[in-house]
Amino acid sequence: MPEIPLGGQSVLLHLRELEYSMKLLDREKKKINADVEHLIKLFIMPDSPDKFIEFGADLLDLIHNFFQEKGGIHSAISLNDLSKLFSDINIPQESHLLKDVLHEIKTKLIAHSVKVGNPYYIGHMTSAIPYYMILLEMIIAALNQNQVKIESAKASTFLEREFVAWMHRLVFNKNPKFYRANIQNRNIALGTVTLDGTFANLTALLVARNRAFPPDGDFPGIRDAGVYEAYKHYGYSKAVIIISQRGHYSIDKVSRIMGLGNNSVIKIPVDSGNKMDTRLLESKCEEIRIHNEKGADRVKIIAIVGIGGTTETGNVDNFREIHRIAAKYDTFFHIDAAWGGGILIIEKYRHILDGIELADSVSIDAHKLMYCPVSMGVAIFRDRKELNNIKHTSNYIIRPDSVDLGRFNIEGTRSFAVLKPWATFQVLGSGGFKLLFDHAFELTNRLSLLVELHPDFESMSTPELFIFTYRFVPKRIQEKIQELMYNTSSEAETLSQISLLGKINLFLNELNIELHKLIREEDESFVSRTMYDSPKYFRQDVVVLRTITVNPLTTSDILKEIIEQQGILGNKLYESEFAERFEEI
Fold first, then answer.
1. pLDDT digits (tens, 9 = 90+) for 40-55
2. How many angstroms separate the CA atoms of 133 and 237, rounded?
3. Mean pLDDT of the chain
4. Tens digits of per-residue pLDDT, 372-401?
5. C-alpha–C-alpha distance, residues 456 and 454, integer Å
6. What is the pLDDT of residue 5?
7. Which of 56, 300, 403, 438 is the most buried (most CB within 10 A)?
8. Is-contact 270 535, C-beta < 8 A?
9. Digit-coded pLDDT (tens) for 466-493
10. Is 84 helix (H, G, I), strand (E, B) or coil?
11. Alpha-helical regions (H) of 69-186
């Protein structure tokens, strides 16, 4: 039977894969008698080391085969059919052999996982990781340390404090005497390891909120009294967080969690470089100050948040100017550098985050530019006593005079995830990170150039930190846009042209959405998609293709292939479904 091409895979392959996967639903795993002796063997090292090595080898073989398999980035099975593989409503009652369960994991889970380490996968921040991370994950699981308490995390507690000191020094770069005195000082915390960037931002902004409404006379502070009593005591009706329009959505989540609500996140428009417009920031702060002088419905600015690598466009705010404004209006200055903070490892690139050391707090993710698997974040603070604003204790686990890390962390049980970046710093060294970042910058610049030179693509952002956005715009439409943008003679004509430009952008949005779907169906490469208001086009919403070029396995030739393929797909799509419609606009 001949194979009929279907988006990088074949119909026959798809049918065989689907048939095989569905058969797994009826596969009978061998049942065993689960006596106490059998169960005990599952909880200790097997009697024979050979048995442990056997299963370990099987597991590594499963992973190796996953990376070696040919075909697309995503499996061909549909989401609907995939859901059927995991629709057993009955909790398993019988015990089964581990090898049978591993086989089910291989065929039902691994076979349909996304190959995020594929060099053609350039659409998200999740990328290839060093192979030794698998070994570190095994150590973390085997030791099963709980970082909340020294009694469940002895050596790992001190390792974590060492890593936090490294991160603090990367950002704030105080003198060596400061770090020697504080690296293992149980009475303070230079920062705290968190689940991810969201928790790092939550930690920092909780500190900011508690600092904004501290104890005062008989008032115990917002931590004890709550939001309502804090507002009443200090004479405010609302508290706000100010951030760029390109800020991460975690700030909205944080505001909700803290009881402030979505409406308390003020989003400042960006300038032409996708950075917070600091003139508008200062104007908003001044507007709030003047409003507060009237005495009614006063507003408290809890924090101003700068971005060290926006997740949509990879751009960096002007930290020095934001710090000046934050100081002028006496408010906390936090920097969300979850994406870009890792670049500080290399002195050559520190200028990209110029002024980051002026922040009161900074959040950074290890699972981004530190090439660790998901997930781990860290929140670090310029003032070594800042985390006392959220410090808590408990008689049974985190007593006041202990060395327990849980005193300074809003999470409870927390894994030994910090082992991964700690080990990576030692395996790679700064020299290794430099090679990785040099390669990533080379890829980003190469991709930007490929788009600029292609007649049917348009660059939509200027990359700073390995993120680049662009869109498919056929040459004919680009010519029309140029005509509208630069040929105006009167205000009425300008308004008319802006209106027409809006219609064209809506048309292009639809075209790029359909192109993105087609790229997914072809499955030979992957880029993501987003939509934001474009300063270039009078703040009109534009749909763009989004790339992240940090995978060390990706090459310039691969990027060339990707752009060429997208150009071919885009033109076929345009000519077959969109060309006639454009002439009607």
1. 877 877 677 777 777 7
2. 49
3. 92
4. 999 999 999 999 999 999 999 998 889 998
5. 6
6. 35
7. 300
8. yes
9. 999 999 999 999 999 999 988 766 777 7
10. helix
11. 79-85, 98-104, 132-143, 154-172, 176-182
CB 543 within 8 A of CB 529: yes
Q: How many CA atoms lie within 13 A of 394 on its CB side?
A: 13
User: Confidence band (pLDDT; 50, 70, 90) for 569?
Assistant: very high
DSSP, collapsed to helix, strand or coil, labels residue 303 as strand
CA distance 108 to 111: 6
* Residues 320-375 pLDDT 10s: 999 999 999 999 999 999 999 999 999 999 999 999 999 999 999 999 999 999 99
Q: How far apart are CA 557 and CA 534, in angstroms?
A: 30
CA-to-CA distance for 226 and 205, rounded, in angstroms?
15
DSSP strands (E only) in 235-345: 238-244, 265-268, 299-307, 332-336
CB-based burial, 266-303: b 16+ in 10 Å, e otherwise: bbbebbebbbbbbeebbebbeebeeebeeeeebbbbbb
Residue type, 79: L
CA 342 – CA 171 distance, rounded (Å): 10
